[in-house]
Write a structure and sequence with these properties.
transmembrane helix, ABC-type multidrug transport system, permease component, single chain, 12 helices, membrane
Length: about 250
């Protein structure tokens, strides 16, 4: 496993798409944070307070999308360029390769998300007026502390689900399209179906993940927002395991 992790690390860090998508993730996330801080001038009640949730809007809306695309490409790029045979020749146990890819990027995505969250907080504070900046005390603010752990957990869960989809589809465009359509539209559209639409809308995995991230109750009372993360995790694990099983049985 250690040698496989090393080889996957080499593949990842020598792939140009990994670096430019990571740069895009940072630019989007920090760009929104900078804009939020700049608008917190303190000249009116609307601009007097600097809220932790507002500083990470870019990360939540678009940054996570970049992570999902990266997670998919980590698995599908090998099949795109046709060097999966060499990988499986070096490591005959294909599940070890899949697990190494997943573990490597889960750690990277969670760490990158945590660091970016902190950068968003402090960049917004630096650009806000003194009065507005004083309203966000990063290590004492309850919302900020929740974001610090919830966003990395959400990133890890998204990576797991996208990894499963990528293993099942094995084609970048198809897997990315499926994941993004599911994330942005599928559950919302299905919620309009007669009779079953309400249940589909409530118990869609991405609906529950959004509930966990935003702490907005979207499902039946008694099912907490944290339970929504567990529910999403169950979907992610099932898809990932299914992806590994399919990879073991398919031709290399």
């Amino acid at each position: 496993m250690i040698n496989t992790l090393r080889s996957e690390w080499t593949k990842l860090t020598t792939t140009k798409s990994f670096w430019w998508t990571t740069a895009l993730f940072l630019i989007i996330s920090l760009g929104f944070a900078a804009m939020t801080g700049s608008l917190a001038t303190g000249d009116s009640m609307a601009s007097l307070f600097l809220f932790a949730g507002n500083t990470v809007t870019g990360l939540y809306l678009l940054g996570f999308v970049v992570l999902m695309i990266q997670a998919t490409m980590i698995f599908t790029t090998e099949f795109r360029y046709g060097y999966q045979s060499q990988t499986f020749l070096a490591t005959p146990k294909r599940w070890v390769v899949a697990l190494a890819k997943w573990l490597l990027y889960v750690v990277l995505a969670a760490a990158l998300t945590f660091v970016t969250v902190l950068l968003c907080f402090y960049l917004a504070k630096a650009l806000a007026s003194d009065v507005a900046s004083s309203t966000l005390v990063v290590w004492e603010d309850k919302q900020a502390l929740a974001i610090m752990w919830k966003y990395p957990v959400a990133a890890a869960l998204m990576v797991t689900l996208c990894s499963g989809v990528a293993l099942l589809v094995r084609q970048t465009a198809g897997a990315v399209s499926l994941v993004l359509m599911w994330h942005f539209a599928l559950e919302n559209l299905l919620s309009f179906l007669p009779k079953v639409g309400e249940s589909v809308g409530k118990y869609g995995p991405f609906t529950n993940l959004r509930s966990f991230i935003t702490e907005y109750q979207t499902i039946d009372p008694g099912w907490s927002t944290n339970t929504g993360a567990v529910y999403f995790a169950a979907w992610a694990v099932v898809l990932f395991v299914a992806g590994i099983i399919v990879q073991e049985r398919r031709d290399a």
